[in-house]
Amino acid sequence: MLRKLYNYVLKLAGGPRAEPALAIVSFAESSFFPIPPDVMLAPMCYAKPENAWRFALVCTIASVLGGIAGYGIGYLAFETIGQRIFSVFGYGEERIEGFKAVYDNYGFWFTAIAGFTPIPFKLVTIVSGAMEYAFLPFVIACTVTRGARFFLVAWLFKTFGPTLAPVIERRIGLFSLLFVVLLVGAFVLVKFIH
Description:
The chain is mainly α. The protein is built from 9 helices and no strands. Helix 4 packs across helix 6 and helix 5 crosses helix 7. It is globular and about 40 Å long. The N and C termini lie far apart (50 Å).
């Protein structure tokens, strides 16, 4: 079923209403949908490189708004809707408690790092609301991390196009991990310098 959904989302990227569909997928992925918007963003940036930055901006804004919706689900309806979404992604009570424990200690950093990695972002946004994490830092972390991710995808596909697509698709976890290591290293370096 996921493969069919993936193929459908990929097909949307080539359709006449690709940009609004990108916004909808970006919004939904941050709160409940399983397919990341990168699946649409990458081919759209390759097909129309002159619009790559606009596509990344649409993706970022919609994703942050979807993150706010996910926050609302966690804040207002974690016991009913939130837990159901977690179970759909294979996260039981134990894993939910693990998320909460990590979030309790590293809320901002967890949001920032998870927003760039293959961890389903909707789980992070829902836990943020359930833990009643401060709203403004949550929105800032979502904006920075999602923007960085989508603008990086836009740049990569605008610049390198089809030669890079199969490599990134097969190794998205590795690319995400490398970015997180670089991001954490930069923060440690800045903290060390000051």
